[in-house]
């Protein structure tokens, strides 16, 4: 069950609540896929301001919310910064090979299309 303990805690689905269709939907958007690729490359937590997306701040906030609510990322406040981390262990346990395959395919596509 999704829980929130304080006004600064953000709701996340519990591991057993993460659904494949929600993950696939979250990763179907190019901006969200870019966020996940950067998180996977870094391997740790990154602030929202780290990401240089060609969209408005409100749209960026929406993308992070979709990723969080689908269970792809975890967001936590550290002081005033909202930190983002990939829920790789949860995703790999629930859907073995899925994230690695999607990230590999995204990297090949970016190379083919000349993107980052």
Automatic annotation (TrEMBL):
Q: Does the keyword Ligase apply?
A: no
Arranged from A to Z, the UniProt key words for this protein are: DNA-binding, Transcription, Transcription regulation
Give the GO molecular function terms: DNA binding; DNA-binding transcription factor activity
Q: Which residues form a coiled coil?
A: none
Keyword Lyase part of the UniProt annotation: no
The name of this protein is Transcriptional regulator
Alphabetical list of InterPro entries matching this protein: ArsR-like_HTH, HTH_ArsR_DNA-bd_dom, HTH_MetalResp_TranReg, WH-like_DNA-bd_sf, WH_DNA-bd_sf
User: Sorted alphabetically, which PROSITE patterns does this protein's record hold?
Assistant: HTH_ARSR_2 (PS50987)
Q: Which Pfam families match?
A: HTH_20
Highest rank taxon of the organism: Bacteria
Q: Which Gene3D superfamilies match?
A: Winged helix-like DNA-binding domain superfamily/Winged helix DNA-binding domain (1.10.10.10)
Q: Which residues form the HTH arsR-type domain?
A: 12-106
